[in-house]
Write the structure tokens for this entry.
Amino acid sequence: MILVDSSVWTDYFNGKQTAQTDWLDFSLGNTPIVIGDLILTEVLQGFQKDKDFKIAKNLLLRIPFISMGEQALALESAVNFRLLRRKGVTARKTIDVIIGTFCIRNQLTLLHCDRDFDPMVKYLGLKIIDI
């Protein structure tokens, strides 16, 4: 199962053509894709026009949903953040560490276009769609 990060969804809804958005466009309806609460929030909060917000919301609500927030995940994410820091990597966004940790914990593959996930691949075993 594939979790698609907000970095890809944002490019997708903005009409930016990348390898990741092409993969997503081809895979919608053909590949098991899920969306989490944190990603849903990140994507939808970026829309300025109500019409665009509604279109995106309707599309995203058709994708199987996973609740990501829980105490155990918060603790694991803090451990992973500290582990990365010991390796000399300072995560720029805590939410990305939470998303990466969620994928690792639930054996999900992540589709992203955000360099913040690269150290999680290298040091934590995060699985990604490598395009």
